[in-house]
Amino acid sequence: MGFQINTNVGALNAYNALAKVNAQTEKAQLRLATQKKINTVADDTSGYNVGKKLEAQTLKQKAQLNNISSAKNYLSTAESALQQINDKFNQISGKLVDAKDPLKDSAAIAKDIRTLANEITSILKSTDINGTQLLASTDGATAVSAPTYDVGGTALTFDFASSDLTVATLATTLGNTKLSSSTDATVLGTAADVETAAGYVRTALGKVGNLQQSLDSRADYLTQAIANNTATISNIFDADMAFEQLNSTKGQIGSQVATAILAQVNAAPQQLLSLFR
Fold first, then answer.
1. Would you place residue 6 in the very low, low, confident or very high pLDDT band (cuts 50, 70, 90)?
2. Residue 205 above 70 pLDDT?
3. Residues 57-69: tens digit of each pLDDT
4. Taking each helix axis from N to C terminus, what angle separates 241-267 and 9-34, rounded to the nearest 10 degrees?
5. Is the pLDDT of residue 199 over 50?
6. How many angstroms separate the CA atoms of 1 and 272, rounded?
7. Residue 75 needs a FRET pair 20 to 30 A away by CA distance; which of 185, 195, 216, 233 works?
8. How many CA atoms lie within 13 A of 203 on its CB side?
9. pTM of the model
């Protein structure tokens, strides 16, 4: 083996090895600090792109899950109001039967029916969420516009408040167009009229139930999809802490050894001085 002092190839090789070990150690330590396997696109270009697409999809799915929660609140409010209306129609039906009893005070019963009818009117007009009418417009003459919710690939339109479910329609069905304002003691319509009007409410309740079922099914799907995506994202980005700790320790030891070897190889040309003694 010859001696060169102008270019110490051995020292250069040892230096390169030390630089490589240090780079690997720093990468392992960075992963330990950030708990991430991919800290720059250069770490894994394909994994980075796939992971970021999944992150975007997951954020969208979480937003859709929030929409479902909002939609459920909408439906729950509507259902509660419709159930109250349905109960009051049942009470009206009972009172219409009572009015046929000659021993009952039909005028008093008629006033009771009028009170119940006015309560139905009030519920229809006042049921809202954040200023948005759910069942009927504030004037009671028209049905409300049906909102549409994005619940993940499916747009659900809440069209349960049909044109039949308005104060005007119910009043006509009951055979008394003064439903919303009259205070006279006339018994409203017939039992058949009341049953028809109550049928509109039960139809709306049925639609609410169907929509709630759809929302529950979609929520289950989105919850599972988010869990699956989160697991995949974790597998792509998250560091194996035990493995990286081993790499860091291995790198630190390797760095110490490489530093010592570099010092020895760098000092080797000094042996040439012995030839001049």
1. low
2. yes
3. 999 999 999 999 9
4. 160
5. yes
6. 12
7. 195
8. 13
9. 0.70
Pairing assessment for the beta strands 132-133 and 148-150 based on DSSP bridges: unpaired
pLDDT, one tens digit per residue, over 119-163 is 888 888 888 888 888 888 787 777 777 788 888 777 888 877 766
User: In a 3-state reduction of DSSP, which class is residue 128?
Assistant: strand
CA distance linking residue 176 with residue 173, whole number of Å:
8
All residues at 6 or more sequence positions from 77 whose CB lies less than 8 Å from its CB, including other chains = 127, 129, 134
Helix (H, G, I), strand (E, B) or coil at 20: helix
User: Residue 175: what pLDDT?
Assistant: 57
Chain centroid offset of residue 186 CA: 51
The two tokens of residue 74 are: 């909408």
Residue 99 to residue 157: CA distance in whole angstroms: 42
What length does the chain have?
Answer: 277
Band (pLDDT 50/70/90 cuts) for residue 178 is very low
What pLDDT does residue 141 have?
Answer: 72
The alpha-helical segments, DSSP class H, found in the chain are: 9-34, 45-98, 106-126, 167-173, 191-237, 241-267
- The yes-or-no verdict on residue 2 having pLDDT over 80 is no
Scanning the structure block, which residue is given the tokens 């051995």?
10
Name the residue type at position 141: A
For 22-42, b/e burial (b = at least 16 CB within 10 A) is bebbebbbbbeeeeebbbeee
The DSSP result for 50-83, as a single string, is HHHHHHHHHHHHHHHHHHHHHHHHHHHHHHHHHH
How far apart, in Å, are the Cα atoms of 27 and each of 36, 90, 125, 188?
11, 73, 65, 82
| Residue 175, token pair as written in the block | 């055979």
